[in-house]
Design goal:
B: mainly alpha, MetI-like fold, 14 helices
């Protein structure tokens, strides 16, 4: 038995059916155009201008070839930020996915825990500025945590800051991820699990051989949303550390933000094109894999 | 006899395991809720007590910040101060309310039909366009900041409320979330309605909207949280502080007024929590409908 896998960004099987039946051919435009028009106007067209700007000098507007890109790619701050951002994503997303899944399994196994679900979802609703206030009280050199441990570590600086950031991200997103996993777990066919058990598979074997493969489709969606939320963590870092935080948590967004305040529009344009290209390629590869699976 | 003993041992181990997991999860929830508890107790402590507690931090002295769960002299002075004697705070509060309301109404008018277009019409280029929407939602604000700035400058919208509202209305995030609920509606239903001669907008209003209610509501709760806590856009595009939303009030308060800050945090948070609590169930179901079934 094969569970139905619907994991692409958009499902394919709707493509052919019903093409003849939809009223006029262009009715869909009345639904789509307001949104598409706005997106074109506020994002696509101006982004086209940004692409143009990435090839010219900021001051005079002369054609500059790939000079801006070269400047960006050897920029120490940019490279540091790329490294940090990649490291952050590489650490956070696996941790979040695994943690959320474990929690979801626990929740499914022990029904009483359902009452705790809201507690996990709550951090999602807490504003960034609030988090910053509380984090200061907890993680300052003279904060509660140091008071409790009788140490004098500045958790907002150095390597510790990176882990505080990871913790913040997990704290914010674990509940959401858990709910998604719980829903995905419900789609695992019970009869297959039962059959495996009858054949003598232990609970670990069942999990690895039956449950995990069934969750693959959901994992892509959950991963995508986790990535999206990882990009939003900048808000907290910025409020805690300002424009130039500890170098371990100097993220890509800091670079962009500092370029923006210094009106370095040429570098910013080149950087934006690069970032969009990388994220777009990543999303494209993921989409391709999803299609291949379907 | 031996077998029964073995069973009993196993069962005892299982019960122990469950209790351990339950305890672990409950401890985790407690940790997750700690910041909110800190805020509540902090908002009730009077200014003197705060000064006392924060003394090590404020005077750069030795020792750690101290904490008592229940303030020595619980007081509502900060709440009174903020709600009745701080016109600035109230102004920002209503700014936020107004801005978020307009954004949500805009998303309802623009994003929901767009999601329907992707879900119900197999038009040419649908896949490419949807992929584009996904990439746009992945781009962090800092990457599109320059293009947004250019568009807003061209339209002379900088430093007006519309500078924050319009780009938010055309965000592709709600389209992505709502699409998945629409896509879950059986195709046959729409075709039957079409054969019966129902117009496309009627199908949308009478079949699409009611069936995807949960998912739409969930998308709007998430969108509310996102917009209520929005900081980067207003900070970048609104110079006039009287236009600022509430989320920017907090970072302006120093630790000297920690009590007021805790209070302002709590008020900001309460609005989120209210919405969150009101729609908790639909949020959960909507997340599920959106991410897994789609």
């Amino acid at each position: 038995m094969r569970s139905r896998k619907k994991c692409s960004f958009i499902s394919r099987n709707k493509e052919r059916k019903g093409r003849r039946l939809t009223g006029g051919r262009l009715v869909y435009l009345t639904f789509l155009l307001p949104s598409l028009g706005g997106v074109c106007f506020f994002v696509l067209l101006p982004f086209g201008d940004v692409v143009r700007r990435s090839f010219v000098t900021a001051m005079t507007g002369e054609f500059n070839g790939l000079e801006n890109y070269k400047t960006v790619l050897v920029n120490q701050a940019f490279l540091l930020a790329v490294g940090n951002t990649l490291r952050f994503v590489a650490v956070c997303i696996p941790l979040l996915l695994a943690g959320g899944l474990l929690l979801a399994l626990a929740m499914n196994k022990i029904p009483v825990l359902a009452y705790a679900k809201s507690g996990f979802l709550l951090p999602q609703a807490i504003p960034a500025a609030t988090i910053v206030l509380v984090w200061k009280l907890i993680f300052e050199k003279q904060g509660f945590l140091n008071g409790m441990l009788h140490t004098g570590i500045d958790f907002m600086d150095g390597r510790a800051a990176f882990w505080v950031l990871v913790g913040t991200y997990l704290w914010k997103n674990l509940g959401y991820t858990m709910v998604l996993w719980m829903a995905a777990l419900k789609t695992v066919p019970e009869d297959v699990l039962e059959a495996a058990r009858v054949d003598g598979a232990g609970s670990v074997t069942c999990f690895v051989r039956v449950t995990l493969p069934c969750l693959k489709g959901a994992a892509y969606t959950i991963g995508l949303l986790s990535l999206l939320n990882a990009m939003k963590v900048f808000r907290e870092v910025y409020l805690i550390g300002g424009a130039y935080p500890a170098k371990e948590i100097y993220l890509l967004q800091h670079v962009f933000n500092n370029w923006y305040t210094r009106l370095d529009f040429d570098k910013m344009a080149a950087g934006a094109v690069l970032a969009a290209a990388v994220l777009g390629t990543g999303a494209f590869l993921m989409e391709r894999r999803l299609w291949a699976e379907e | 006899m031996e077998i029964r003993m073995g069973n009993r041992g196993k069962r005892a181990a299982a019960v122990c395991g469950r209790m351990l997991i339950t305890a672990g999860v409950l401890f985790l929830v407690f940790l997750f809720l700690l910041p909110v508890l800190l805020l509540i107790s902090g908002s009730l402590a009077d200014t003197m007590e705060w000064r006392d507690r924060l003394a090590p931090l404020l005077t750069d002295g030795e020792g750690f910040i101290s904490w008592r769960w229940i303030p020595d002299y619980p007081t509502g002075e900060h709440f009174k101060q903020l709600l009745f004697y701080s016109p600035g705070f109230l102004k920002l509060f209503w700014n936020s309310v107004g801005m978020v309301t307009v954004i949500l109404l805009g998303e309802l008018a623009v994003g929901v039909p767009a999601a329907w277009a992707f879900a119900a019409f197999p038009f040419r280029g649908r896949r490419v366009l949807f992929f584009l929407y996904v990439v746009l939602l992945l781009l962090p604000f800092q990457v599109t900041q320059l293009s947004q700035y250019l568009a807003l400058r061209e339209l002379h919208l900088l430093n007006t409320r519309l500078a924050v509202i319009l780009p938010a209305v055309f965000s592709t995030y709600p389209v992505f979330l709502i699409y998945r609920s629409f896509a879950g509606i059986p195709r046959e239903l729409l075709e039957a309605a079409r054969i019966d001669g129902a117009g496309e907008w009627r199908i949308f209003a009478q079949i699409g909207l009611p069936l995807a209610k949960g998912g739409i509501l969930a998308a709007f709760v998430l969108s509310f949280l996102e917009n209520w806590n929005r900081m980067e856009e207003p900070l970048a595009f609104l110079e006039d502080k009287s236009l600022w939303p509430l989320s920017l009030y907090l970072p302006e308060i120093s630790l000297n007024q920690a009590g007021t800050a805790a209070c302002a945090s709590l008020i900001t948070l309460t609005v989120s929590l209210f919405v969150f609590g009101l729609f908790r169930d639909s949020l959960e179901q909507g997340i599920i409908a959106g991410a897994v079934k789609g």
